[in-house]
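Example complex used in Figure S2.
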Amino acid sequence: MKEKITIALAGNPNSGKSTVFNAITGARQHIANYPGVTVEKKYGTVTHKGYEIEVVDLPGTYSLTAYSLEEIVARDFLVNEKPDLVVDIVDASNLDRNLYLTVQLKELGSPLIIALNMMDAAESRGIVVDDQLLSTLFQVPVVPMVARSKQGIQECLDKVIAVAGRDQEWPPAVISYGNDIDQGLDQIETIIKRSKAFNARYPSRWRALKCLEGDRQILDFLKEDPDLGRSIEDICQATSKHMVDTLDEEPESVIAGHRYGYIVGITRKAVKRKVELRLNLSDKIDKVLTNRIIGPLLMIAILYVIYVFTFSASEVPIRVFEVFFEFLKEIVSSIIPVGNLQSLIVSGIIDGVGGVLGFVPLIMFMFFAIAIMEDSGYMARMAYMLDRVLRWFGLHGNSVIALIVSGGISGGCAVPGVMATRTLKDPKERITTLLVVPFMNCGAKLPVYAMLIGAFFSKDKARMMFILTLFSWGFALLAAKIIRSTVLKGPETPFVMELPPYRMPTLKGLLIHTWERTWYYIKKAGTVILGLSIILWAMMTFPGLSEEQERFFENERIRATKSLLTSPEIKEWIPDGKSLMELNGLYESYARANSEEEAHMITGLEDSPLFPLIKTTFLLNKGEVPERQIERHDLQAAARYLRFRDEMTGLGDRERQAALKGSIAGWLGQGLEVVTRPLGFDYRINIALLGGFAAKEVVVSTLGTAYSIGEVDPEGSNSLSERLRKDPGWNPLKAFTLIIFTMLYVPCFVTVISIRRETSWVWAGFSIGFNLVAAFLVAFIIRYAGMALGLGVS
Amino acid sequence: MVFLFSLLRRRMAGSMGVTPGNKDTFGMKKVIKMREMSDNQEGIIRKISATGDMGRRIREMGLVPDTPVQIQGRAPLRDPVAIKIRDFTLTLRSDEASGIWVEVDVPEHQS
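Predicted assembly (905 residues):
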């Protein structure tokens, strides 16, 4: 008797395997990758009746051949790790196909029980499975189950303990594949058993079968002994020739036929069909949702609803995040004195990490919506409907998931998009998809668009956004076509995909899916972006102002202060520099109290003798003409003080602008003008684009600094829009060129890291290079085509 | 075992009203490519001529000879095609459906 049991969950995709896994392990689950591959390994533990059961969720597969990564991973795990028991999750409403994997597990000699899941769905379709009889005929313990409502989970764990506790032998099942194949199997089995390549972990008959099926992994393994390899190959060829001559079939196809024959032989006895339902509910829904005309229209409508839902639902949480980070900045600013350390923490770390984390609510809601589409089965329908279009561009129906997650409906994120390409089997199609997803309009690009559209296309905002959405799709597809007909040339892979029945998603499943992906994003933002933010901050801060410049700004400030203190209007209010500081402090508290509508703070300030001046200045600043009872010389004093304030703000902005220009990023930006001049970009835009490598929305705030207009609120960014609209160097064509360049130029840093994780540094580097070249060419064409048409000559 | 199995095969096919092995036309039946089938048409898979990876994926999804199949519909651009097989719905491209041969009823007026 053991205290600790390891079980593996095996099963087809859509058999409810993850529901079973979630029901067994609850929140105690972990995700890792199988060594060396990007296939996810989920595992968790549960304690049941004193036993500690470790559960490993194998990738969902239809078979155990060596033709997909998932199948090899599952197979290797079963053979090498030898779990104490394999729980095969079988969909009772779709028994034949699910049992195809079960037969192979039996042939592999894995200790096995069948969890007969979705008994309710089967019953509603008039399929009644006699689990006792199935167990007898299959010679495997069977536990009926409805994992969604947790029925049968405890019974399954009981069975796990009972079966794993038995010290039982699990001889590999021997299934007959007809005379010719059986003879070949016998011959190969005998050779393997006698050879050096014999390995007790692999049943010899199973290996013989794999040889006849043409399984590359096993054949290569046996070829390590050249004599053995040759003699096995001879038998395989002889068998194959004989089969083709007599039956006109390859051995592999005969084997599959017999396996299904064996299964049907059992299910015909163990399954009773009450009524032959010609169309079940799911089929009826499909008649509408995948209808030739209604289907695509509904798909667009559904995507639009998701877009609206994501943005409206995340509005409040995003605001909360913003307020939180503002609060954090204020606290840090009040604790740490003004200087480089404060600047590093406030402008470098909090702004950088906060900017990326600020998107978490948006991303979370987007993932939630996507999880609904996946778990309900609608995503498969989208892949089905769009496959024909995507195939023309060298992609695959399943690419649509990655494209939509990355911002196909504006406001996704390329990081989970890159991860979503894991559903693509063919490496070429997968890499192509992953290279084009950064072209989609992710959430971080939207503030940049909003600012520029606000400045130059404010009349038709909606139309511009729509055009940009079309443009990004068009460009991504075109780029895919280019990549697929050059660097990643290759045949298209088969599209053989199940349309799983529509199912109502469970909240638990949705939350787990959403959280897994969101957490991945947060982890990235917390680690990679932290380091990068610090580097970018340093680039934009050092070396900064020269001593001479510093002295200049200092003198200017002293001059302005002196001029204020000596002016006749203000003299009677503030006699010296000390009272000026007091006035400044009080004015700022009053302004803040007003903007936050804190009545009690305002009341507190009213006692000050300086209050009338403060209030008048404030009203004057807002452009509201103060009431009559204010005396004339008070008004003059307020106007003089306001002028002083504007002067000081202007000096601060000019100083920041000069500091940015004098920084490493500033030098780079100026150096890059050589390259970007054909696009009409000056050093200020270049600096902003450099900053955008961290996260695209940084473009807006950096442009703000570069144009010396102080703090820019990335959501509103009105002052920057205003400033650019009035700038003679700007025009709609330039703005549009910058929008398109921002859309295409480089994946943000986190995306580059994700691409590397999914592929290699080579592809990550290619992605940066390809996108830069593409962005440059497209922006160049747009600019010159626009100028040729007489638009925006500057 | 082998004998039992072939018996089973014959019985299965027999219950569906056809005898295995007849090619092209036999009375009211003919064998056509799956891609040529019309929507909602039913038939029985007779042969999978697709080979390699494609053939394997088709077969492991349960498309093996003597299995009844029905065309459920086609995607908006007439490709891929959705079929009902065993107890589930499978989609595959028309190109891939060319490697699947299905025995169907010949409409009265054609025979």
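Chain A is about 65% helix and 5% strand. Residues 179-273 of chain A form a domain with the Helix Hairpins fold (CATH 1.10.287.1770).
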